[in-house]
Design a protein that fits this description.
Blueprint lengths: L1 H81 L3 H17 L4 E11 L17 H13 L4 E4 L2 E2 L6 E4 L2 E4 L2 E3 L3 E6 L2 H9 L4 H6 L4 E12 L17 H6 L1
Antiparallel strand pairs: 1-7, 1-8, 2-3, 2-7, 4-5, 5-6
Helix pairs in contact: 1-2
Length: 250
Amino acid sequence: MAEKKRRNKGEFAVVVVCIIVGYLLAAQLRTVQLTGAADATNASRLETLQELYNEQSKQNDALEDQVAQLQGELAIYRDQAASGDEGSEALRREVEQLEITAGRTDVEGPGVTVILEDSTQSNVTGEEADYLIHDNDLLSVVNELRSAGAEAISLNGERLLANSEIRCTGAVVTVNGRRYAAPYVIFAIGDPDTLYSALTMRNGVVDVLSQWGISVKVTASDLLLIPKYNGTVEYQYAHTVVPESEEGGE
């Protein structure tokens, strides 16, 4: 009887061991399957990202070719205007002004340099974001410069146009589709004294930012160089209005 009990216990132990081994094998198999699925998913995602990158690169190359072609045509028109009569000279000056407004050419002149850096004050609000430079801070500076008569402005080397975006993207700021982190350097061409006074006046934008410990250094300069805008601008919905007199004459 005792021998039979020992046999039953032994058989039970074998069954338990088999169950445990089976469970471990099943768990191992599931892990392998999940790992394989994850690898396949990652590989598929990488392939998709690579395809998107290649497509974007092709589009960028095409846009760069388009910009180069348009700049070549503009140079031809400029040369033709320069070799003409008084009317052509007026046209040349108008083209030059339009190029500056559209950001299609490098410009230089007197103005101010503005350097903004994140605050180094102790965090007393519990919100780290309160001590970082945000898009609205940069927009406040840019708008003040424009109101003071700045004729050309750049932010970290990016020429700012009427449709240039300045917006936060996480801890950095996106300008003309490119991301930048502090410090932020703004060049503005215009009357140095007027631009400087507009930024540093009492309770002005510099005073407000300084309350949060954000460093803003404004320096007048006799000569600044602002590069041209390197992107393309396409208007899909806005069209020029043809005067009624011209429509009637057609």
